[in-house]
Amino acid sequence: MNTAEQYLKAIYLVQQVENGPAATGRLADSLDVSPASANEMIGKLEDRGLADHEKYKGVTLTDEGIERARDSLQTYCIIERFLVEVLGVEDFRTEASQLESVIDETVAERLDTIIDREPQCPDCFAPDEDVCALLDPDGGAAD
């Protein structure tokens, strides 16, 4: 199940890659949902003032949406890095995706103290690779 926070994060990352509005189809693909489901959640995000959707152009985040997306992305990076650096989890992307909707801000802050998050987070996230750039592709911490 994809939460509003996961949609915000996905829209933000697609906007980074595309350097413009996130196409609904691309968003649906990145979240592994139907375009109809993506449109439904985009409508909810619009109602909350977090996104703007223009038919045939795509969806963009409002300033508040960007802030929430960056917070969500930072939490995701913290989870990823904790799974790799502390627990040595090989399939950390799948685990992080499953955990991100159930980890609250307090737990994320506590995990953050263990991993010693870098100050550039969440700008350290590489949207094309869908992984924190501070992690090496073999699943370890980058030097």
What about the largest sheet?
2 strands, antiparallel
Helix share, percent: 40-55%
| Gyration radius, rounded | 15 Å
Given as residue ranges, the uncertain stretches (5+ residues, pLDDT < 50) are none
Supply the helix-strand structural class: mainly alpha
What share of the residues does DSSP label as strand, in percent?
5-15%
Give the tally of β-strands.
4
Helices, by number, come to 6
As laid out across the biggest beta sheet, the strand order is: 1-2
Distance between the termini: 34 Å
Q: What's the rounded overall pLDDT mean?
A: 86
Broad shape: elongated
State the order of secondary-structure elements, H for helix, E for strand: HHHEEHHHEE
Q: What does the oligomeric state look like here?
A: single chain
Pfam family, one: Fe_dep_repress
Organism: Halococcus dombrowskii
Domain HTH dtxR-type: 1-62
Family: Belongs to the DtxR/MntR family.
Features:
mainly alpha; 143 residues
Task: Give me the secondary-structure topology.
Blueprint: H1 4-18, H2 24-31, H3 35-47, E1 51-54, E2 58-61, H4 63-85, H5 92-99, H6 105-115, E3 125-126, E4 131-132
Antiparallel strand pairs: 1-2, 3-4
Helix pairs in contact: 1-2, 1-4, 2-3, 4-5, 4-6
